[in-house]
Structures are given as structure tokens and as C-alpha cells.
């Protein structure tokens, strides 16, 4: 019997950077909670962004934010993983040399930006609906960071997979998060580790867990659930970690699987 459902957001549940989730999914969450099934929203986004997205049911959810660096439920921080200050300084200085990409620096619930690029600000503040703070020099702010990201559209995959991820993977958790982002976090950070924390807290095992994902940063989550689903648009390396393949966000694949399993709303 399924006791825990966890889903990624961008590329799995909705199109990347969507500000809202479709109404059927909100109603499905209500249905799952009425059956006492725990629902986790697991994303590379910050807590503020995903909590606004699911505002109507936010108090019925556990949020795994920043790829697992920040776990929050009903306004209470369950877990925060900070990046070592030495790595923050070293990585920030290197990323600043890549002038054709934008950067975002995540605290637990706030995005620090050094940029004045209105298009990028629009993506974070208006599309993702992040809580944003503008700073001249994030290093001078002396704040704890849980994630550092570099962004480029239409894709940053070549830079990420060929240079940044291999270069940093021995020091930080470095992953692709969609086509547009490379995320850097403490080595311990993983959506799978975060989901395992929740499984252990509620005494739920993998056979009682259902997970949906689409990208490399979802692999850890897929690996701790017996009923694991990759959307049909996921890279092959992600599909290899999933027991099932489901339709993409375009066809509301997550909702369709849940409706088949638990009944339509």
C-alpha cells in the first residue's frame, strides 16, 4: 500500500518555470491527504517558490526544496544543509568569470542576486516566484547558502556536463536541473537523501513509496522508491533508474498515474 507520494515539479509536473500547477493536481493532493497519504513536493526551486505554487494545499505538504538542501513542513525547517564557506567563495569567483550566464545564490528561503538582467530577474521573481534579495556582492553579505546555480537558455547542458560538473563533483554535489540550470550544493544533498529522511521519520519503506521525476537530480529519489516513474521525456540515464515510464507534463502524466491508482477527482 502506498503511504508516501513524491513528485518533482519542473519538467515532471509542469513545464519548466511555470508559476502555477493545474487544478486537477491540487484536487488530487486533497484526495491523497484524505486517504492519509503523505505528499512531498521535491524541487530544485526554493521553498518560497514551490509553497506559493501549492498555496491552497501548502499546509498538507512536505516541501523538499533546493534539491534536498532544505526540507520544510508547515513553516517548520526540518533540515538545512549549508555549503562550506570556502567552496562558496571559490565557486562564486569561478562562476563570475563565465560572463554569458546568470547566477543565483540560495539561502534557506531567499534568492540572492547580483545581476541587473531584467530577463533573468523576471524568470526568478515572476515565473518561479522566488523571494529575491538584490546585493552588490553576495560574498560580502556573509550569509549561509544552501545552493549556488548558474543559468543559461536555451541550454547549459554542454557547459554543465562537460566542464562544471566534472570539475566540481569531488567537492560539491553538482547536477543538471532541467536544461537551463546547473546546481551546486553540499555533497550530502540529494533529493533521495531528503526523501529517505522523511521515510525514516514516518517509518515508511520503499515499497510504500511512489516517486515521479524527469532529470538527473531526481535519480536519488527514484532509487528509494519501488514505484518509481520517469516521464517519457526524461533522459535515458534517468529512465534507467525508474520502474515505470509515464506521460510527460504536457499530458498531465503524474495526475493520470495517480488517478488510475487512487481514483479521479
UniProtKB/TrEMBL annotation:
One of its GO terms (molecular function) is magnesium ion binding. One of its GO terms (cellular component) is cytosol. InterPro entries: Cof, HAD-like_sf, HAD-SF_hydro_IIB, HAD_sf. Gene3D superfamilies: 3.30.1240.10, HAD superfamily/HAD-like. It holds the Pfam family Hydrolase_3. Keywords: Hydrolase. NCBIfam families: Cof-subfamily, HAD-SF-IIB. This is Hydrolase.
Amino acid at each position: 500500500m502506498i503511504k508516501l507520494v513524491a513528485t518533482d515539479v519542473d519538467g515532471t509536473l509542469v513545464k519548466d518555470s511555470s508559476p502555477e500547477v493545474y487544478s486537477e493536481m491540487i484536487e488530487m493532493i486533497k484526495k491523497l491527504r484524505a486517504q492519509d497519504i503523505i505528499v512531498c513536493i521535491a524541487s530544485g526551486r526554493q521553498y518560497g517558490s514551490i509553497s506559493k505554487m501549492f498555496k491552497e494545499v501548502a499546509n498538507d505538504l512536505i516541501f523538499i526544496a533546493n534539491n534536498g538542501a532544505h526540507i520544510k513542513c508547515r513553516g517548520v525547517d526540518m533540515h538545512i544543509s549549508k555549503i562550506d564557506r570556502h567552496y562558496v567563495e571559490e565557486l562564486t569567483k569561478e562562476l563570475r568569470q563565465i560572463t554569458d550566464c546568470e547566477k543565483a545564490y540560495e539561502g534557506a528561503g531567499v534568492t540572492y542576486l547580483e545581476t541587473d538582467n531584467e530577463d533573468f530577474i523576471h524568470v526568478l521573481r515572476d515565473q518561479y516566484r522566488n523571494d529575491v534579495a538584490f546585493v552588490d556582492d553576495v560574498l560580502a553579505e556573509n550569509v549561509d547558502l544552501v545552493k549556488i546555480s548558474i543559468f543559461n537558455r536555451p541550454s547549459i547542458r554542454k557547459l554543465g556536463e562537460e566542464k562544471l560538473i566534472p570539475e566540481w563533483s569531488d567537492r560539491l554535489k553538482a547536477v543538471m536541473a532541467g536544461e537551463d540550470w546547473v546546481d551546486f550544493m553540499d555533497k550530502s544533498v540529494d533529493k533521495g537523501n531528503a526523501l529517505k529522511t522523511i521515510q525514516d521519520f514516518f517509518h515508511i519503506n520503499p515499497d510504500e513509496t511512489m516517486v515521479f521525476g524527469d532529470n538527473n537530480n531526481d535519480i536519488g529519489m527514484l532509487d528509494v522508491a519501488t514505484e518509481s516513474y520517469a516521464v517519457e521525456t526524461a533522459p535515458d540515464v534517468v529512465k534507467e533508474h525508474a520502474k515505470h515510464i509515464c506521460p510527460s507534463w504536457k499530458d498531465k502524466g503524474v495526475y493520470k498515474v495517480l488517478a488510475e491508482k487512487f481514483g479521479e477527482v
